[in-house]
Amino acid sequence: MKLSGSCLCGAVGFRLEGWVSPIQACHAARCRKATGALYAPEIAASSAQFNWVGDTDAIASYEAPILHEPPAYKRNFCARCGSPLPVVLEDAGYAIIHAGILDGDPDLRVFRHAFTAQQSPCCDITDAAPQYEGQPPTPDPTELNP
Residue 18: how many CA atoms within 13 Å on its side-chain side? Predict the structure, then answer.
């Protein structure tokens, strides 16, 4: 699959071609605070063919300390406009992308809800996608995008 996206001001963008997951709706408190939304619409994608476009000097990062146990928490954002940007995890081989920064319709939909035990009281989950109170299992890529 081919995807592209950018920040609000257009200073930083990205392009990728390869494996992409459907959207995971993450209801964790830290993800809600990082996005300012009722949940974070996250897509996992192969980092092998991920490329930044534009002014990469405008990419800023925030890494939260690990309070109790992994996973670590890192967010990238545009230093000019504050829009969230993908986080490329080279060691893991994938990138995490927020669906709201994609250009066009990627034809991806929510396939599950994560960390529903931390869900905002003003967010009702109304779809039939599976719900996990905590961290869901790692999906098998062949089952998601055959």
Answer: 15
> Can you read off the two tokens belonging to residue 87?
């986080």
Query: Where does residue 143 rank: exposed (0-12), middle (13-18), buried (19+ CB within 10 A)?
Result: exposed
Q: How far apart are CA 111 and CA 88, in angstroms?
A: 22
Which amino acid appears at position 83 of this protein?
A: S
Superfamily of domain 2-140: glutathione-dependent formaldehyde- activating enzyme (gfa) (3.90.1590.10)
CB 115 within 8 A of CB 135: yes
Q: CB neighbours (10 Å) of residue 90?
A: 10
pLDDT tens digits, one per residue of 119-134 = 999 999 999 999 999 9
**In the chain, what are the domain boundaries?**
2-140
Q: pTM for this one?
A: 0.87
Nearest to 111 by CA among 146, 75, 143: 143
Q: What is the largest CA-CA distance in the chain?
A: 41
| H or E element at residue 138 | none
